[in-house]
Amino acid sequence: MVMGKTTASLYSLPYDLLYQIVTDLDCIDYIHLSRTNRTLYSLLQNELLAKRSIENSVREAKEARQAYAGKISFREAIGRIYDVKQAVAYANPYSVAVLAYASTFLYQDGVLSYYCANEIRVLDIHQAARKEQVLDVRNVFRRIIPAFREDEAHGASIELSFLYYAAGVLAILAEIGHTSPWLILLDVSPRGPASCNRGRLRFLRQLRCTRRLFVRHNHSHLFYGVYSTVGLSSDPQWSVQWVDLTQNTDELGTGPILLDKFAGTDIGQNVCFEIFDNHLYAVTSALDSNEEQFHPESFYEWTCISPASRIRRAPIQRIFRRMHTEGPINDTWSDISLRLDEATGRPMITECRREWLQNRTDNVRTYYTEPLMRPSEMPSTGTAEDRLTREAEQPTPRVVTPLISAASSHYPLITGGAGPSNMTIEPSPAVPRKTPDGEVIRSTKYKHTEYPDSTMPKRDFILARTKYRAYNPSAAAFVDLINDPEPSTSVGVVQDRLRLRICSRKRKQPIEEEEEEDASSRAKKKKQSETSESEEEQQQYISNGVKLWPADDADQDLLDLLCPAKRAANVHGASDERTLVYSVDIDTDEPHQQAIILVGFDPRIRLPCMRSRKRKLDESPLVGTKHNRRVGIVLPRLRDIKDSSKVLVEDSQKIPRPRSVRTEDAMHLSINSGYWFDRG
User: Fold this and answer.
1) What angle do CA 444, 274, 336 make, to 5 degrees?
2) Which residue, among 334, 307, 308, has the nearest Cα to 321 in the 3D structure?
3) Which conformational region is residue 526 in: left (phi greater than 0), alpha (psi within -120 to 50 degrees), or beta?
4) CA–CA gap between residue 191 and residue 340 (Å, rounded)
5) Which of 393, 382, 253 lies closest to 312 in space, CA to CA?
6) FRET pair for 664, CA 20 to 30 Å: which of 93, 127, 326, 548?
7) Distant-in-sequence, close-in-space partners of 242: CB < 8 Å, separation ≥ 6
8) Where is pLDDT greater, at 264 or 519?
9) Distance between CA 114 and CA 574 in Å, rounded?
10) Which of 651, 661, 646 is nearest to 143 (CA)?
11) pLDDT category, 514, cuts 50, 70, 90?
């Protein structure tokens, strides 16, 4: 008797087995699997399965935190994360809109702060807010800055710079006349502070030095630092100050902390600072020039400063970065930042390097990431702090052990402060592994080359045409805002055209690897498997290619919205995992006026001004022409702008305002220029 064959299917498996399978699925694979058929779609609506996938891949994403807080379901969170990631990866945004007219702006934490008509206006973009917080600059300063009325009476100029925004608090620098600048932290949240005897003022202090000033804060802690000479030293160095914002005073919590021999002076290019878990992380990709020229490798130097730390010099640690033999670097494209890994919750060094790798004739952009320890994972620093303090007070310089070369079994981990006087060297467990050919092995998860294959078709733009560039680690995508002038067959002035250029990658599935694998790739994979310690290095990725948006045949009104004046002048941008915000010049009689444009990849960010592109538009031309300014919008008249982040505050008699802080309708409601791109 012939027994009939039974075909096993995924949805016929026991729940426990399906649960284990889902453990290895990220949110992209989870959604793709759910769309295989109706049965799997129904099974994968299960909250426990969805939660398991989130815990495995994106537990620190915004939607994941909302799910843990009970605001949305875990299955809904996976769907939202998928929508955003795919929209970014394939350059397929959901919306675009003109948010405001301004002279300068700051976009952080999903909130837009901009200066317009003697006011600071604050808009929550992630919440698609219809209201803005409006602060009258001069009225606020009259209340908080001593002797401001006297300076104002003498006609002193006021220059503002936006520094940082987080947790509803905006940090600004105010330069009034010829006096020392003021560092000001203001609560700009809609409801204001719950309990504070100083109203919205969180911190106020006059600074003697603002060279390379940076500010990082959350609701409870403030760190700010400058690059200047300290004490008797003739060489400038980084100095960091901590303030406890919960005390509602302007007193400094402790003395300044020095980052001795911490090379790198260009924030965002070779040095960066960020606050995680109430601790300040500092990272530099530069080394002392005298040291670097004698060693074949370079390192990241980093430190983590805790609140209320009593140390005088921060302990510096090192992580291997690269070998000089890997090829030269085109430094004009370099940038470095600190991000939060949405999968692990750890701080991540994210660095872009454009390199001539492996003797290639062309230089290729690559983003490298390196995980750092959380504060809770670090060993107790109490003993080390006491030791470093004692060492700093020793009058006799100590002898430093020479750096260990790359051929040694351990790379050095340096802790301590200002050079030979108080530096100690300890062996680091992080040793770069190499193939038998000497090539440094890096996890493919933490290395993303724009063109991994030299035979890939390229669509590159020179640096002058790349107005803004960033990397979106959530979508594993290079995100560039480029000027790609429209091709014209007629003789005349070429019109600029702003477009998105996105190059992303996705995980290569095993079936794809088997189909595309040739002899050379199999040999390389075998060589890596002999030296790798985990499957992470063997994970393969495939490029999605270069995507440009809008398309070449896009409507002119959409192109005009993205580039209102038809010239891409003075473009400044900022982005996060779900939005891109940039400013660009517009045609206006007033100097230094710019439109602030939003490109949204989150379908839940939908403003009233966004109209469906599927419907025929019967309205007049969009912003950018002289005859169509929206009624009720007063454009600022700014006479002196020194750079993109500093503006001059006008005389209050020119633009009178009744209150210091108030809530108003958002400016985008009056501008009423935007589009929504329907799917399907």
Assistant:
1) 45
2) 334
3) alpha
4) 28
5) 393
6) 93
7) 221, 222, 223, 252, 253, 254, 257, 280, 305, 307, 308, 309
8) 264
9) 13
10) 661
11) low
Dihedral sign of CA atoms 387, 388, 393, 399 in order:
positive
8 A C-beta contact, residue 334 and residue 269? yes
Q: What pLDDT score does 516 carry?
A: 56
C-beta neighbour count of 386 within 10 angstroms? 12
**pLDDT digit string, tens, across residues 30-67:** 999 999 889 889 989 999 999 999 999 999 999 999 99
State how far the Cα of 234 lies from the Cα of 237, in Å rounded to an integer.
9
**What residue has token string 């193939």?**
435
DSSP one-letter string for 250-293: ---SS--EEETT----SBTTTEEEEEETTEEEEEES---HHHHT
User: What token pair was written down for 673?
Assistant: 């220029």
Q: Which amino acid, one-letter code, is at 647?
A: V
- How confident is the model over 357-409, as pLDDT tens digits? 877 778 899 999 999 999 988 876 444 444 444 444 443 232 332 333 333 33
Report the distance separating Cα 266 and Cα 281, nearest Å: 16
Domain boundaries, the chain: 10-89
pLDDT score at 398: 27
Single-letter code of the amino acid located at 65? R
Give strand pairing partners of 335. 352
How is 146-197 classified by DSSP, letter by letter? TTHHHHHHTT--EEEEEEEEETTEEEEEEEETTSPPEEEEEE-SSS--SS-T
Give me the half-sphere count of Cα atoms (radius 13 Å) on the Cβ side of residue 53. Answer: 29
Cα–Cα nearest to 677, from 592, 589, 585, 550: 550
Spatial distance between the Cα atoms of 434 and 250, rounded to a whole number of angstroms: 52
Dig out the tokens for 83 from the structure.
């929508």
pTM metric for this prediction: 0.86
Q: What is the mean pLDDT of residues 308-318?
A: 91
Quick check: bond before 550 cis, omega within 30? yes
Q: Is 426 helix (H, G, I), strand (E, B) or coil?
A: strand
Rg (CA), the chain: 27
Are the C-beta atoms of 104 and 91 separated by less than 8 Å?
no
Helices of type H across 347-482? 382-392
Residue 166 exposed, middle or buried by CB count within 10 Å (0-12, 13-18, 19+): middle
Average pLDDT over residues 262-286: 95
**How many whole angstroms separate alpha carbon 222 and alpha carbon 307?**
9
Burial class (CB in 10 A: 0-12, 13-18, 19+), 620: exposed
205-658-206 Cα angle (round to 5): 10
HSE toward the beta carbon, residue 560, CA cutoff 13 A: 11
Q: What angle do CA 314, 318, 320 make, to 5 degrees?
A: 165
Output the six-digit token pair for 182. Answer: 């003021």
Cα distances from 451 to residues 160, 309, 456, 460, 546, in angstroms, run 42, 44, 7, 11, 10
